[in-house]
Give the backbone structure.
Amino acid sequence: MTTVLVTGGAGFIGSHLADRLLAEGHRVVSVDDLSSGRIANLAEARGYGKEFTFFNMDVRAEGLLPLFERHRPEVVFHLAAHVGAGQSLTDPITSASVNVMGTLNVLECATRVGARKIVYAASGGSLYGEPRRLPVKETAAQGSFPLTPYGISKKVVLDYLGVYHRYRGLDYTALALANVYGPRQDPACGGVVAVFAASMLAGEAPTIFGDGNQTRDFVFIDDAVHAFVRAIDQGSAKLVNIGTGLETSVNHVFRTLADIIGFPGEPLYGPPRPGDPRRIALDIGRAASAIAWKPWTHLEDGLAETVAYLKGV
Ligand SMILES: NC(=O)c1ccc[n+]([C@@H]2O[C@H](COP(=O)([O-])OP(=O)(O)OC[C@H]3O[C@@H](n4cnc5c(N)ncnc54)[C@H](O)[C@@H]3O)[C@@H](O)[C@H]2O)c1
């Protein structure tokens, strides 16, 4: 049994990851300040009793080091982040504080207690800015221009990971996640699938920002979590895209969800949001070779499962 630590462990992806790690027999220490995560997401993990420990703590806190010293995790999954890309345009300081300084605190703590590896939740949707070629390969990260302070804060961590690997002996895998969707995603935090589904289930037309022909790469939560688990022993010192390689328009997501839910109306359209790329899809060739990963869930099935969760069935 390995002790692992998950930051952002009460969030959408972090809580699913904790559940999966516990199911695989690991001891899981979860750290989250509950700024966007929820205790309710920990219901399954708490069922594992002593194998699961939760700390309500900010990753920037000085108390993080004693916590690491007490639990001595072998692998650290770093998912805690200030996640609002749009919000970061008006509050770039908070996003840098949590996403850069918070990450440095996690890297320092991991190094000081001799952790073997950090698996980092990078952002494939923002890292590459407006890519010239699709699907975009990891090599495009060099010289890319993220469109938001959030994207910048997530990108700069990749350089820190390289330095900690080279000079401090901390291995890493950075997973550049596409648009992850699925059960537990909080509509209040802005994931397009959760927002659209919640509003249609309430009988209200969702608002599409822009003409809806902008594309995203949607990857289901279980597939994303599987990539984190694969990265425990594979993908050393690599940036790895985690997506489907497919471009899906926001209009298509609306139509598919409307069919599943039986929503008869049309969407509303609003002005495009600053910082939103026009088109994105991630090349996933490296994920196959570096961590033996490929996506498994079809969009329609993943959307149906998300709707079922939101309906409480
Ligand atoms: N969901 C996606 O589509 C997506 C795509 C690319 C990258 N990511 C990355 O994956 C990670 C998880 O995202 P998510 O979608 O689960 O979002 P989320 O908001 O559900 O999870 C983030 C968690 O971090 C916690 N947190 C925030 N600031 C903190 C702090 N200072 N100290 C401790 N905890 C803090 C929040 O309470 C929350 O539980 C993030 O790093 C995000 O940048 C997500």
